[in-house]
Amino acid sequence: MACALLLSSCAVLFDRAAANFANDLEKAIRAYDEPSLIREGLPAYILLLEARLESRPNDSDLRLTTARMTASYATLFSNESDRQGRMAGRRLSERALEHAQIGACRQADRLCDLHQLDFDSFRVRLQALRPVDLEAVYVLATTWTTWINAHSDDFSALADLPRVENLLDWVAESDPAHDDGAVWLYLAVLNSQRPPAAGGRPDKAREYYTLARRYSGGENLLINVLMADSYARLVFDRDLWVELLEQVLEEREDHRSYRLANQIARARAQRMLQQTEEIFD
């Protein structure tokens, strides 16, 4: 009995240490300024999380952490111009969404099977959400967005956009500053992925980009890149495209929390500026 209690206590301490380490690792990743090292090293940590899930498949926090890290890797490092990279991104996004769905459901029954409900039943579930659900809903919505983006050529995936937008709206209303206001960035991208004739709302997208910039204190340069790539391209605004991307390249000081994102933003901005004539010819 003593041995069993000791082993049980060790497992609890290990899980607590693993959770703390996950939080510390995310902070370190954001603060690191060499994307290539993160690109090479992060998969090893994701595999460690997957291994831990083998023995704790019902741990909602572990599921959501794994979902968040997998989706981040898929978003930041999948090469969309290369078929092999796109396929890898699709597979990673599928795995991230699966973890997010399981983790959210393990946390609360009201978060189960949201992707399978008819829309009226889905809206009823939205009314039942509670403040304690905030992080699970946010992880589910953002990984769902990553999955939709990776499957943007699939109309059945695009049909999920209203559900994701409703979840993000709920997060934004519950805590507008959550994750440094990144929820507004997701809403901006969603509203600028479709032209107005197809239900897109470029006017709202621009408003959301402004809110995302405000809540990040203007420190997150990826906001400029995403605004150029989705909004400026959608409304065919060459001057705004150039202005946003040049601002990224001119900014030299990085807040610790955005060093990695800003290095990636600068590399993307450089490539995108070189494509200006091709896009706006």
Which helices and strands occur, and which strands form pairs?
Blueprint: H1 2-31, H2 35-55, H3 60-77, H4 83-107, H5 119-128, H6 134-150, H7 155-158, H8 161-174, H9 178-191, H10 202-215, H11 222-234, H12 238-250, H13 259-274, H14 276-280
Helix pairs in contact: 2-3, 3-4, 3-6, 4-6, 5-8, 6-8, 8-9, 9-10, 10-11, 11-12, 11-13, 12-13
Overview of this protein structure:
The chain has 281 residues and is mostly helical. The protein has a domain at 34-163: TRAP transporter T-component (Serine Threonine Protein Phosphatase 5, Tetratricopeptide repeat). 76% of the residues lie in helices and 0% in strands. It is built from 14 helices and no strands. It has helices at 2-31, 35-55, 60-77, 83-107, 119-128, 134-150, 155-158, 161-174, 178-191, 202-215, 222-234, 238-250, 259-274, 276-280. It starts with a helix and ends with a helix. The relative contact order is 0.08.
